[in-house]
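Proteins fold reproducibly. Look at a concrete instance:
___
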Amino acid sequence: MNAMLVISFGIATALLLAACVKADRVRGWRQSLNPSAPEVPDAAFVVARVIFLVLAGVMVFEGFNLLKVSSASDWSDDELTRAARQATDDLDGWMYRDDGLTTDSAYFDDYASLLEDKVIRYGGGGAPESGVAADPADANTDTDAYFTVQANGADAVFCTHIERTRQKKDDYTPPGIAGGEGTFTERAYRLAVTTREGAC
């Protein structure tokens, strides 16, 4: 993207410089290269200048369009800071239940995806809907995990700590088919989430 921006504005600058070259100088260059070439009329220089200026305008317009696309695909430090804090507030103290049937362990073991989705959700209207990464620490476990949260375009980096605790008092056993006691229990878990600036 940056290379395309440089090329667009570079071409626009070259075209503007070409449009500013005086006709006598062009005639002199042409005469030195090909003395027998016919004289170029002034009208041809006017047309050439108009074409150069129009093309330069097109390249500037395309350059600004590329800037808009680049801005829309990148996160700012403020956007990531706000989103990381709101995601932390949302997840801290969050309780959920797992019936133990879908997976061998708790349903939200994939904390990285959960955290990335929450940060993107709280990015706001100006932030992209992608580009967030929650990189797990090597020593993470199902119950205690650290993630370095970063986003495309943002220099800010955050360390999020997620700790899962079992909440037996909040377990739920749904009634059986015949109305009696159920055959399985939905296990309750609660997350404690904190975030600080800097990598983990």
Notes: The chain has two domains: 2-73, 77-197. The helical segments are 2-20, 23-33, 42-73, 77-91, 111-121.
